[in-house]
Each structure stands twice: as C-alpha cells, then as structure tokens.
Records
---
Amino acid sequence: MRVLVVEDDLPLRRIISKILEEEKYQVDQAENGEEGYLLATLNEYDLITLDIMLPIMDGYTVMKKLRDKGCQTPTLFLTAKDRIEDKVHGLDLGADDYIVKPFATEEFLARVRSLLRRAGKIGKEGKITYGPILLDTNQHEGFINGDALKLTIKEYELLYYLIQNKEQILTKDQFFQRVWGLESETTDAIVELYIHYLRKKLAPFNFDGVIRTVRGVGYMLKE
Amino acid sequence: MRVLVVEDDLPLRRIISKILEEEKYQVDQAENGEEGYLLATLNEYDLITLDIMLPIMDGYTVMKKLRDKGCQTPTLFLTAKDRIEDKVHGLDLGADDYIVKPFATEEFLARVRSLLRRAGKIGKEGKITYGPILLDTNQHEGFINGDALKLTIKEYELLYYLIQNKEQILTKDQFFQRVWGLESETTDAIVELYIHYLRKKLAPFNFDGVIRTVRGVGYMLKE
DNA sequence: AGGCAATCTTAGAATTTTCTTAGAAAAGCT
DNA sequence: AGCTTTTCTAAGAAAATTCTAAGATTGCCT
C-alpha cells in the first residue's frame, strides 16, 4: 500500500512517515505542494496525506489540480486547529477526510484505514487470494490451506503485488519500484532473489510453479 | 510494439521511455527533431510521441515532413502549456492526439493505448488473433485453441508483426528492422531462421502452412 | 535438364538471462 | 549487548535464447 506524505514541517513529516511505515505502508515524502503534485502525477498512490499550509502551492490547489487531471486518490488533509472553519467542509467526503493537528497516532491510522476501506483498497476482512493462496493484510501473512508461509515483509509485498496483478506479467523493474521504491540503493536483480525465496516457501505445498518466469520480460502468477 | 520518443529534456525522456518499457513497448529515443525525423524514416514505428519544442527542428516540422513522405504513424504530441493554438496547429498537421505536460502516467498510457487501438494495432483486451492463432499481449504468449506455443520474445514479435499485417506481404528487411532494429549486428538472414522456428512451433497444430513464403519478396500470413 | 539463387534445415557456439548458494551487513528483539 | 531474523551482495551454475555457419533443398530460368 503506497502513501504520499506532503508536509513541509520536517519533524512532523518524519513522524507521520514513521507511523505509516510501522504499519507497513510504503511511504514517499514531499516537502512542498509542487513536489507533492509532481510525485502524485508520476506515481500511483493508494492514499495521499496532504497538509493545507504549504510553500509554493497550498494543499487545496494541489488537490484541485490533481482532481482536474482525473486523479481520484483518496486524500487525508492535515490542518491546524485554528483553521478548520474555512474550506474543509467543501471537501468531497467520500474520497477525502481531514484531521486536525496535533493528532493521536491511533486516530490518524484509523482515518487512513477508513479512507482506504471506503476507496475499496482494503476489504473489511483484509484478505486477498489466488487459488489456495491467501494473504491476510491485517497479519501481513500468507497461508496455503491454513498453513502459514512465514513471509518476511518483502516477500509478503512481492506476493501481494503478484496476486493483485494475477495472470499478468510484471517486470522486475515494476516489482523493484513497488516493493523497494526509487530511492533504494539496490538494483532490480534483488527481485530475482526474492522470487526465489518465495518459490522456496511455496514449494512444500507444490505451489512454486504458480510463479512463472517469462524470460526477457518478468514474472507472473498463473495456473 | 515499437515506439519512438522524441524529447529533448533528458529526465522526461527517460521517464517516458521507462513508462513505455514497463508496458512492454520497445522504445527508441531521439533528443532532437532531426534525429527523430531520421529514426522515423529509417524504422517503422507503431507510435511516435513527439515534443513540440525541440532543438534543430521543432515537432511541427518533423510531423509535417513525415506526413509529406506518406508516413501515417499515429503521433502523440507533447506540449508544455495548454495553448489552444498549439493544439489546433498540431491537429491541422495530422497529429492524432495531444497531451499537456506534466501529465499523469495513467493518462499518458491511456492515450497511447487509445491511439494504438484507433490505428488497429491492438484489440480492446490486449489480444489479437488470426484464425485460431491468438496472441495475448498481457502474457506475451501465443495460443492455438488454448495451447501455449511457448514463444520466445523474438518469435512472439515476429508473429505479432505477421498478424498485424495479415494477408499482406512483408519483406525480410521489414521484419528485420521491426524486430531486430537498426543497431543489430546481424543480417536479415536471421529472419529466415526465425520464420523456421515459428513454423516449427505451429507445425504440431498443422498450422505451419499459414506462414507463406513469397519467393524473392518475403513472407505473409494467409489462409 | 542443368544451373543459379533463394530459402530451409540443422547443429552447435556464443551470449544473455535467470537461478542458486553462501555469507556479509543491517535491523529487530529481549 | 548479544542473539535472531531479514535483507542484500556477489559470484558461479544452469538454462534458455539468439546467432553463426554450412550444407540441403527448392523453385525458377534459360
């Protein structure tokens, strides 16, 4: 699950990112409206948290420009206590929500989850499957017929991405960008290794074959 | 599917190429109008993305010269500002679509797909067929009655090109330029070999006959 | 029919891509 | 701090693809 955090205040941005990362969200950060807008157009996020007071371009403008472009990413606005009154009520509360700074961690996370659920990004039960493979998004764990696969975070995310795009080829680079992110020091050769790890954990159930190699292109989940 | 990206701004050119490559398009890049024009005349592309502001020769001129030569390749114009006169001018010259920078990845890809679809280069669901032969662009695989042909990339692209131009003769040189590209070290004799490989994979289904040799000219898909 | 050129076929060499292994580095936990 | 788990680096093995080369076959022309 990818989140973009647009916030100019460095300590707060770090805290928010940390909170989200601890919840296993993959976080990108922007420190002003323009950067936020750029990142949001270049990448596809599941959620954006957007400060309203921002240098260069304020949160409302970023939002408006994104919506004009057809971007429907659910957005959580952050606003200072003394400024709630103005435009907040004009928001489309179906796709958006707002939270007043300072806020409690749990409230923040609850709103994030709620937005994601409303947008259909996570199911109520938080489970996705492919054949007998089941991923529980709450536990961050995978199962086959009830047996836990004991996946690490990276393995889990790789498998998640595979299931999300079942029966479609994903390139190594796509995996890399999605699971490791652009700032990573590593090369996308790491993907091969993790595909290998995944197959190894699927092998005892005779399911290592579902991850197919498409030579010269990438990998896919099939049959 | 071959795309030519003509764009002088290096980061943007890289981003566009990357986006396209992730979608399994084969991308060539040109950094100015002259280079773009040259590449477009030397190779046969399925699509050109053409920046308007370019060094040496601007996008309009490139476009005009190509159309004058009879080149009908669908072209997507990129323009920095939403200036209506740009749009009108471009469309006058035969541009097929036009997108304003900066743009969202998905919008860009949607336009690319839509152009290719309009030009009949891809079917709606990413599948093209000839008789019982089916190519699935999502899987990069060919099928006959549901049986996979296990094509390599080169074989797939050759067959793809054949189906795209079914019942029309293509010269070895056309295959060579299209599948191997200009930078290739090989000679176009390699085409014979790959036609052979393809026939071999089609033979079990009694379909090796559909690839006909037209002596002294080339090959075609027929009956 | 014979000869010539184009095409087909085969085999294996060269290259590229992917897999596997092992261990080092980093991060997390108690 | 010390132990455990996870992540990453590196390099060689294995596998698949791509290409070279050469001889066989086919069709066309005189």
---
Amino acid sequence: MCQNVCDSGESTDNIKEWDRKHDSSVKRDIILDAAEQVFSDKDYHEAVLDEVADVAGVSKATLYLYFKNKIDLFLSVAERKLCELNEVILKSTADCSDPVATIKRLITDELTFFSDNAAFFKVIHDQRFNLQLRAQVNEDEIRERVMPLMFSKINVTAEVIKLGQENGVFQAVNPKEAAFMLTSLVHTCLLLLNLAPEDVVLTDKAELVEKIFLEGLLMRKT
Amino acid sequence: MCQNVCDSGESTDNIKEWDRKHDSSVKRDIILDAAEQVFSDKDYHEAVLDEVADVAGVSKATLYLYFKNKIDLFLSVAERKLCELNEVILKSTADCSDPVATIKRLITDELTFFSDNAAFFKVIHDQRFNLQLRAQVNEDEIRERVMPLMFSKINVTAEVIKLGQENGVFQAVNPKEAAFMLTSLVHTCLLLLNLAPEDVVLTDKAELVEKIFLEGLLMRKT
Amino acid sequence: MCQNVCDSGESTDNIKEWDRKHDSSVKRDIILDAAEQVFSDKDYHEAVLDEVADVAGVSKATLYLYFKNKIDLFLSVAERKLCELNEVILKSTADCSDPVATIKRLITDELTFFSDNAAFFKVIHDQRFNLQLRAQVNEDEIRERVMPLMFSKINVTAEVIKLGQENGVFQAVNPKEAAFMLTSLVHTCLLLLNLAPEDVVLTDKAELVEKIFLEGLLMRKT
Amino acid sequence: MCQNVCDSGESTDNIKEWDRKHDSSVKRDIILDAAEQVFSDKDYHEAVLDEVADVAGVSKATLYLYFKNKIDLFLSVAERKLCELNEVILKSTADCSDPVATIKRLITDELTFFSDNAAFFKVIHDQRFNLQLRAQVNEDEIRERVMPLMFSKINVTAEVIKLGQENGVFQAVNPKEAAFMLTSLVHTCLLLLNLAPEDVVLTDKAELVEKIFLEGLLMRKT
DNA sequence: CATGAATGAGACTTCATTCAT
DNA sequence: CATGAATGAAGTCTCATTCAT
C-alpha cells in the first residue's frame, strides 16, 4: 500500500527494492522532501504546488504522477514524518526495564525529534490537524492514514506507563490519557524554545518536563 | 465595559475611539459575532467572507467599513475571545490566599471556558497560531496584537505559582514555564474530550490535570 | 425559477420587471449573447470561458456572478434558444384548421429558424446533445432543463398530425414518431444548405421536405 | 481486403504502404479497436488517450507510432467504420432490379448497421461531425478524409433512386438530396429506439421509415 | 519498435478586495 | 453609512504530446 509505511523496527536494509523502481522512488522522495520543506514554511492552504514543484525541480504536472492530490501529497509527507517519529519512540522504549528511566529517555528523544522537525510539526501538532483540514477532504482518508500512526506513538508511551503502574512506581491514572499529556508537554517545550530561542538549551527543557510530569508541582515531603 | 480590546491587563487606555464609533459599534459586534461563528466552523483559509457577511446580515463590502482586512477581522475576534478568557482567569485568581486551591480553580475555570469555546480555540490553539499565519501578514501585527493578551493570562498564572513557591508549597521551577505547561495540559483535555465524547465528564478531566500537574506521575511515598 | 423560461404565447410586454433588476438582467443577457456566439463557433469543450468573457466585455469572474458553471451557462443559452423555437412553433400552429397547410407552415418556419440559428443548433441537434454531454455533468440536470423544451416542440407537431389523422387526411402512424421524423428532415435541409450554399434557396428545400414528408417518394397514381 | 482505407468507392490505390507496416498493422488494429471503444463511450474531448492506451494494452507513447494525432486516430476510426458501412450499403444495393425492394433492403440494412454501432455513430452523426471539430484541426483534413466516404454511401443510394425515377416508380426529386433525407430518417429511428428502448423492435421502425419515405404522410386515394 | 517519464499550456473556479452609486 | 457589482490574481488539476533510453 503506502510505500513509506515505516518498518517499525530496526530494519536498515531497504536496499531490497533497489532494482525495479529505484529511480522512480528517488524522484518521489525528492518531491516529498520539497513538499516537507514547503509545508513546513507555510500553512496547508498557503503552501502552493507551484513552489513545491520549484523546490523539487520538477514540473507541476509531475507532482501528479506521484501523488493523487495536494492533500495526498501532504498526507504522504505527514505519514513519512510520523513513521520516523514512531521509530524514534520505539527505539527509546525498546528497553523498559526501568520505567522512570524509559520515560526520561522518551522525553529527551521525542523533544529532540520535535525540535529537529519543529517547522513541520507546527501544522500537525498532536492529533489536532485532523480537525484543521476537516472541510477540505474526505475526513475518512485523513483519519485512516494518520490517526493510526499517531496512536501508535501514544500507545507505546501508554504501555510504558502501564508497566510502571504494575511495578508500583506510577500513580493510578489512565495510561493513555497520561501519554497524551506527556506529548502535550513536550510540544509545549518547543513553544518555550521558540519564545526565547537565544540561550535556552534543549536538555534544560527536558528536565522541566520530567520534573512536572513525573513529580508534579507540589513539594514532596521528604 | 471595554469595547473590543480588553483593559484587564497592563494596557488601560483604549477609550480613545469611544466617541466617534459609538452606535456603529453595535453593528461591529454583530459582525464579530458572525465572524466568530464562521471562524469556529472552518479553518482560517476555508472561512470565507461571503459567509461572514451572510451570517451577519450585511453586505460583504460593509465588512471593510469596520475591519481593514480578513486578517484584521480574524485578529479582532481572537482579541475579543482572549479578553474574555483573561477576565475569567482574573476572576479565578482574585483570591489566591491558598495557591493550591487557586490552581485547582484555575484549571476548572479555564477548562470550562475552553470547552465552551472549543470550536474557536481549535484555530488559535495555544500561542501557536501566530506561526500558522506568518506568511499571510506582517508577522509583527499578529505578535503585537495577540501576544500581549496571551501573556497576560500566562503571567497571572505564573504569579499564583510564584506565590506558592514563596509559601514553600510549590517546587522551584520557572513559574512562567510552568504556567505554559498548565495551559497546555488544559488544552489536551479538550482533545481527550473530543476523542471519547460519549461518557466523559469535564470535571473528571480537570481532576486528571490537577493530579498530573500538581502531583506528577510518580508515586508519593507516604 | 429560470428567468428566461419562454412565455409560450403572444406576450410582448416584458417591461414588467424593469424596475428592480433591470440592469442586472441586461448584463446577464449580454453574457448569454456572448456565450451563444462562442458556443456557436465551437464545440462545448473547445469553447472557453475566457473567450466568452472577452466577447461579453466582462471579467471571467463576472460570469460566475450570473451562472453557476460552464455547463449552467451553456444550458441557459440552450434554454433561451429553445424557448424562442417553441414560440415560433406555437405561432406557426396557432391556426390548424387545415392540417396540411399547417404542416407546410411549420416546415417553412422551423427551417427559417434553424437557418437563422444554424451555428448554435449544430451542437444540440435534435435530442442528441443530451448524449454528447453525458459524462460531463449530472445527466439529470440536462434532462430536466432541456428535454421538456425539446419535447414541447415535438408534442405540438404531433398534435397537428393527430388532428390530420382524425380528419382522415393523414395516414395512421404514430404521431410523435412522425413529428421526430419531420424535425429530422428539416435539420437535414440545413446540411444540404451547408453543402452547396451558393445558389440554393431556403424555400426550395422547404418544398423538398414537404414533398417527401407529405407525399413520399413513390409516384402517386392519378 | 483493404487495410484501413476502404477501396469500395472511387479511390482504389491505397496499397502503397502495404509492405513496410505489414505485421505491425495488427497492433495498429488493436489500437483502432481500443479507440473505437473509447470514442463510443465518450465525447471526442472527453475521451482521453490514456484510456485508449490502457484498453489497447500499449503505452500512450506507442499510439504516436501509429497515428499522428488524437484527431488522426479519431479519423482513422471513423474511416474504418464508414468503410464497413459502405460495404454494407454496396451489398444491399448489389441487385437493384426492383428499386422499391432495394430501398427497403437498404433501410433495413442501414438501420441494423447503425443500431449495431450506435455508440460510435452518436459522435459522427450524419455528416455533421466535420463541423463539430472544425476549430481543432485543419478543417480540410477532415473534409478530405471522411467526406468522400460519406458521399460514397449517399451516391449509392442516389443511384438507386435515380434508377427508380427512370423506371417511373419514383417522383422527380433531386436523388442526392433524397438520399440524404433517407439517411436522416434512419438515424432518427435510432433516437426513437433510445427514447423507448423497452419494447420496440428494429423492424417496426424500419417499416415506419419505409412508410414515411416511400408513401409520405398524406392519405393515398385508392 | 516500445515506453516510462516529464511537461507546457491551458481550463475552470474561487475569493479578498475595490469602487461607483 | 451601505452595498451591488465587478475583477485581478491565484490555485488546483488535466492532458496531448515529446524524448531519452
């Protein structure tokens, strides 16, 4: 189906399909790169295909050889990005013998990833972007193509939390909801970075999220 | 009462145009109402002025008598809404003798307000919308018009947190950053409500935010 | 509804609506005229709205103030033309005391009308054009907007034939089918005119149709 | 047998390219078949070469190895079809000892042929299609390629009529014009069949044309 | 001979904005 | 103050045609 569905694992050998469609895929990726750049610069509606074509160095008509639509192009970019994110997350949580350490690793890695891809993720912040485009296209297509990818990330995080709860380390809250909260906090860090970008360091912010999310604002009685 | 720029914060002197516009401001409000409705239904670019005019019951040209632009109209709606929010926040924090209780009140009231205005706030989620429109207009205009209003809210919250810290109740974190985090968590609640809207109650979610934000995920040793 | 539905009678006083929408209707008619000209010059798909706008002396966007679509514009032109035709037919058959004379009058008048509007009617020859556009739009819209107008003409002719049959003047054939045949023969005359346009006279062709349709090819025994 | 330009008329020498193309002509025919199918389904402009290539099972570029143009392809299909028709007509009129019987045979055979090929002939109804496409290509090319084929059919019919006139069986009308009329009536039958396709039989319609064309609408005095 | 890939040209449609009345 | 009418500019998408391989 979707030709860039992530492998969700450690698989590195994507040289398997190098024979038949190798340079067709190359062009497709060039376009995806260009689109990612343009969609990162502008709102979905402000991004124009002319610019994507320009950046990709192809004709506008060529875009339609590889993607059905503008929205299809956008969703393809989003899919690719979310797959990358999921891989990061999976790698972070591969070893969850220590739930607290895992959560900390998760926060750092996710924050790093978001920070690296901040421009693009402004658009599809959390699950919200399915609302943003609702009037534009068949809502189902969006829902079916990206929601699973988003939930994949949430579910992985929720699993770690559940594990911690079973170990008696974490409080009894709905794990999935807590996972959402965590993602949200990480996103907020990006905002903080944007607002005062001169001197702040990424790790500082990671610590803030850790502190709030793990310990809360209230003073702990020793 | 303030006309469309709230006086609830630092800025006080916006009574300058009180004289001339006077009665025409009623029509201005009608248009704002219509615009709010339309902008709540659709994305900024999907919302069309034709519909705003229709809903307001005026001609499209009339919109330009009261607002410079489409973006001006949008920002005016946002301003008005944020003013309302600031008033809510101020009321919530009027008495902050007990910081913990105040934070709880703040969470509940903000959540209620967001919930009541969910449709509109999906568009200007957090402080992010200044990024979304950056290509469209002079970024400075947006920054200058809405950022102060957003920070007003953040600052009020931060004050409460600072107070709590001085009282030895709250941990030592950057109060402003913590305030951002709180807002973010409240927004996330809206998402949770949207994702499973059948049975969930608002207050349940408020409790979740309280728990996470105040106590954190880690088990407290008794 | 459709604002140029024919009055189907002798009504000449269309000054009734001269107050409110008088110059709006004027512009609409200008566009219709331009469209008729362009659609007469070219196939539906070859006719481009740019040219219609040019000929009408308005902007392309203006077309969309008065017509929903390209197809709507085309159908509006067709409706107007068919209404004119129906009026001609009705006038021709107003007095049908003598069926033979009426048929002859009908042939002459219809032929004259087609001849005057030959360019446009090339496209919607007979009932056939509903097939030509079938893939383009909601077939129902076409069917509902123009079929009645086409059948109106056929029915009137069929009535005359039925009358002649009742008087014992005409043979026993299906009147409606015969009416179709007559229309077809009249159209064929246009072809003949086109093929050898130098010296032929309209009335000669009318006589041919009369002869064939009324008397047939076979010699009559005296 | 002739390859794609029929020899059934005046033109005889089209065997010039018989040598080189030889076996490639089988693919050429495959393409023609595909094109006929697609052009029968849709309007000339709605038919797209992509689909022709698909149906033919060849690449779109291959079409251009066998045909100069889209219009060339279309005209080639039309030529082939008209050649078939001409053969039918010639067979029908091979024996014209009895003009009346011959005309009847002609009507039946032509009607059958049109009925079998109704889909395609909707497009090039009568001789009219040379008008439909005039803006598209050099009008002369169309005129020169298909008009002779059309006239071939007309001429054959006209010969039969002339013969009948010489035998004193038919009235004195222009034979060629009468032949046109006849063709037109046959086409009209197809329309009638389309309009009420449930119960009608082809032969019934043939009788109607016979009656009208041969005897006319007027009652014959015995 | 065959084709996958690419594209230029152009069509329809939309919408924020202006202006004469 | 209000608006009906008009439009320039722009955007998405299509398709016949070409060309290197």
